[in-house]
Design brief:
With 171 residues, this protein is mainly α. The protein has one domain (14-136). It is 47% helix and 5% strand. Mean pLDDT is 81; it is low at 137-171.
C-alpha cells in the first residue's frame, strides 16, 4: 500500500494521485496548485485596484465558476472522465472570480455577493457528492470506471506534472 501524502499538500487519496503533480517528491493537488496562486494573485491585484470594472462583479463572480461546477457534477455522477488538461483550463477560468470575491470579502466581510456565491455553490457542489458514484472508483486518469462514463486507459500524460513515473495506478 502506498503511503498517503500529507493532507495539507493533497486532499486526494492514493487512488486519486493522478489528480496531483509532484513537488519535491510529494503529491500536490493539481487544481489547488493552479487555483491558489492565481486566486491570491488576483486578490492582491484587486485590492490594489487592478481588476475588471466593479460593475461586472455580479456577473463574473457568479458565472466564471460555472464550468468547474458542471465538471464537478459530471465527474461525481460518473458521466465525465477526469482530464488533467480540462481541470487546469477550467481552474484558470474560475480562480479570478474567486480572487475578486475574496478581495470583496477582505474589503467588506459582510459582502452579500461574496456570501451568496459561497452559500449557493457550497450547496450545489455538495449535492453530487451525496448522490454521486465517484467515491467508489479506483482510478480516474483519462478514464472513469463507474456510472455511464467511458472506460479507458491512462493516455493523457502530457498535462501539467504528469509523466509515466508519476501516475499512480490503483489495483
Amino acid at each position: 500500500m502506498q503511503r498517503r501524502t500529507a493532507l495539507w499538500l493533497s486532499h486526494h487519496y492514493p487512488n486519486e494521485y493522478d489528480r496531483c503533480i509532484h513537488v519535491a517528491g510529494r503529491h500536490v493537488c493539481r487544481r489547488c496548485a493552479v487555483f491558489y496562486p492565481v486566486c491570491f494573485t488576483v486578490t492582491v491585484l484587486a485590492l490594489a485596484g487592478v481588476r475588471w470594472a466593479p460593475g461586472l462583479d455580479t456577473w463574473l463572480v457568479w458565472l466564471l465558476p460555472v464550468p468547474v461546477v458542471v465538471e464537478w457534477w459530471l465527474e461525481h455522477l460518473g458521466l465525465l472522465a477526469y482530464s488533467a488538461r480540462r481541470n487546469v483550463a477550467l481552474t484558470l477560468i474560475c480562480a479570478p472570480a474567486v480572487g475578486v470575491g475574496l478581495a470583496r470579502y477582505l474589503e467588506n466581510p459582510g459582502d452579500t455577493l461574496f456570501w451568496s456565491v459561497v452559500a449557493v455553490y457550497a450547496v450545489v457542489c455538495l449535492l453530487p457528492v451525496l448522490i454521486g458514484t465517484r467515491g467508489g472508483r479506483t482510478s480516474t486518469h483519462g478514464n472513469a470506471i463507474h456510472g455511464n462514463a467511458i472506460h479507458g486507459s491512462v493516455t493523457d500524460r502530457s498535462a501539467i506534472g504528469t509523466n509515466p513515473e508519476e501516475v499512480v495506478e490503483a489495483e
